[in-house]
Amino acid sequence: MADAHGTVAEHAEHSPHLRHHFDDMAQQFDSATLGMWVFLLTEIMFFGGMFGAYTVYRGMYPEAFASTSQFMNPFYGALNTAVLIVSSLTMALAVRASRLGEQKMLQLFLILTMIFGLAFLVIKGFEYHEHWVDMKVPIIGGHWNYSEFPQFARQAQIMFCFYFFMTGFHALHMVVGLGLMTTIFVMAKRGTFSSSYFTPVEISGLYWHFVDIVWIFLFPLLYLIGRTKKLI
Amino acid sequence: MHEIPSVRTYVIIWAILTTMTFVTYYVAQVELGAWNIVVALLIAFFKMMLVILFFMNVKAESPLTKLFAGAGFFWMILLLGQFFIDYVSRGWMPEGKLW
User: What's the pTM?
Assistant: First the structure.
């Protein structure tokens, strides 16, 4: 300890979580946050491509896209939006608890976040099942019947492709998020975090909120189009 | 590092977000013509800003992080803006009933 140049002394002076290429914990934290945002930018580009393509095709076939809303269940959509928003609240509270060093609260809120995340996927599964029963799944080989609006039968397939790809990739992100939460929960159980080290909780939270934001846009774009038109 | 927001703040933001979800659900059933999509997207944008500023706490992050978060918007505006310029100006869209 007395030797200021020795490695023992160096480690004794700072948190064991501080990597040596950072000046202090604050700088390390800011770097990790910025890095996560760079990753989220690539995610914006990933989903942005799908939103862009959706924009073009919806502009081309507005009536066909509107007709698909008859086979969406906006109640499930709204319910899932509410469930995700609650999960974002519990996630934010988990991050808050980790900053304050409240380990029990952190674990509780992580579990709540996972429960709401799972609830979202279960509801989504019910919806997919409804589409399957409705014959509204345009897969190769065709589980597709659009006899309600035969004039839109081909164009509506495009919309349902967008629907399944966008919600499917979103659901995949939810599964990844649940994996992250499980990891963070195990780390929290092992006592990794403290009020001076909570970076993994924070950046996993950023990811979770991002997935929530994607859904905030998917909900009106996929479920709430053409609801004022009574086509049937 | 940053000041820690209160539970009250988070709960208020959650209440606004949930309320806006119901608002967007009901407004979608009112005939507003082309404005339906505008209102829906404005509400979604407002909800996104609340999540980013408060839940993701970008409000309290470093200017560099704010810049990067803002770059995401900028990129999306470029992408969608260019789509509109291209497709609308070429007259590929059906007239009068864009949405």
Answer: 0.90
